[in-house]
Write a structure and sequence with these properties.
Mean pLDDT of chain B: 91
Strand content of chain B: 25-35%
CATH architecture of the largest domain in chain A: 2-Layer Sandwich
Shape of chain B: globular
Number of domains of chain A: 2
Number of helices of chain A: 4
Strand content of chain A: 25-35%
Protein name (chain A): Sarcosine oxidase subunit gamma
Number of strands of chain A: 11
Oligomer: heterodimer
Helix content of chain A: 10-25%
Largest interface: A-B, 13 and 14 residues
Shape of chain A: globular
CATH class of chain B: Alpha Beta
CATH superfamily of the largest domain in chain A: Probable tRNA modification gtpase trme, domain 1
Distance between the termini of chain A: 56 Å
Number of strands of chain B: 6
Radius of gyration of chain B: 15 Å
Helix content of chain B: under 10%
Pfam family, one (chain A): SoxG
Strand order of the largest sheet of chain B: 3-4-5-6
Structural class of chain B: mainly beta
GO molecular function (chain A): sarcosine oxidase activity
CATH topology of chain B: Folate-binding fold
Organism (chain A): Neorhizobium alkalisoli
Structural class of chain A: alpha+beta
Low-confidence stretches of chain A: none
Order of helices and strands of chain A: EEEHEEEHEEHEEEH
Number of helices of chain B: 1
Radius of gyration of chain A: 17 Å
Number of domains of chain B: 1
Distance between the termini of chain B: 10 Å
GO biological process, one term (chain A): sarcosine catabolic process
Order of helices and strands of chain B: EEEHEEE
Largest sheet of chain B: 4 strands, antiparallel
Chain lengths: 186, 101
């Protein structure tokens, strides 16, 4: 029984409405996305790439995009694939007919978009990776640590990153990024 | 901070991303139900704990998630080399070679 909108429960997203940053870094919550954690053997990568419409990268620390989806190399047989909500990533993967494991982690993760000239400095507040353009070019991605929490980091532009973080850790990650943004402006 | 070379990521990464996972190259007995208690204790509990060159398993737990093997000097804490899991015990490169951190 659905009547007026006043009685309809709405999902509260982690970090919904938050924003922050400093004069050199902009922090905002990413739009909701559908995500899967994908495990595939080397011989079935081509079949899954065709089924998902995005080439699963096989080189460490690289990502690829296509068909409105982005695939990040996490490990030798592990990828994080995300795209727009309700496009059926698990169903697409199932159409491959190849042996794989696709776990829907859409609501396990949330993402923070970090942009601006100080974004690498802000992330390096808690992340030990070399984020220079030589070592971490546009499109590079890696699972790593940010302070005390694990993140998946993707460089989307020269001065823009996407930080995928577990939802229960997102307040912590956003808080530390905010501090990093302030420090980057000093 | 130590930098450890992950053979799967093919890159040096911070020690923070790694976890130690015990001595390497310990083979599980094929007939584990037939061995004596002493042999089982030897396999299960007893480790060499060598001073100097030691072979260990490490896991890139906050990176690619893979286990790999490392040769490490327990006196200097230097990683002499790392190699993929499943490979036989690798000889350590001559001194002066390899990773010197």
């Amino acid at each position: 029984m659905v009547d007026s909108g006043a009685n309809v429960a709405t999902r509260t997203l982690p970090l919904s409405g938050v924003h922050g940053g400093s004069s050199v870094v902009r922090l905002e919550a990413a739009a909701p996305a559908e995500r899967i954690n994908l495990r595939v053997r080397a011989e079935d990568v081509a079949a899954l790439s065709a089924a998902l419409g995005v080439d699963l990268p096989v080189k460490p620390k690289t990502s690829s995009s296509g068909n409105g989806r982005t695939a990040l190399w996490i490990g030798p047989d592990e990828w994080l694939v995300f795209g727009d909500v309700r496009t059926g990533l698990v169903a697409s993967a199932a159409k491959s007919g190849a042996l794989h494991s696709a776990t829907d982690v859409s609501h396990r993760n949330t993402a923070i978009l970090v942009s601006g000239p100080g974004s690498a400095a802000a992330i390096n507040t808690g992340c030990p990776q070399d984020l220079s353009l030589d070592a971490f070019p546009i499109g590079a991605c890696s699972r790593t640590l940010f302070g005390k929490v694990e993140i998946v980091l993707l460089r989307t532009a020269e001065d823009a990153f996407r930080v995928e973080v577990w939802r229960s850790f997102s307040d912590y990650a956003f808080g530390l990024l905010s501090e990093g943004a302030r420090d980057a402006a000093l | 901070m130590l930098l450890i070379h992950c053979p799967y990521c093919e890159e040096d990464r911070s020690e923070l991303e790694f976890r130690w996972a015990g001595e390497a190259h310990i083979a599980r007995p094929e007939n584990i139900s037939a061995i004596s208690d002493e042999e089982f204790a030897e396999f299960f509990f007893l480790r060499n704990n060598e001073k100097g060159l030691t072979y260990e398993r490490w896991r890139h737990i906050h990176g690619c998630g893979r286990f790999f093997n490392a040769a490490r000097d327990t006196i200097s804490d230097k990683f002499l080399m790392t190699y993929k899991a499943g490979l036989p015990k690798q000889p350590v490169p001559a001194s002066g070679e390899g990773e010197t951190r």
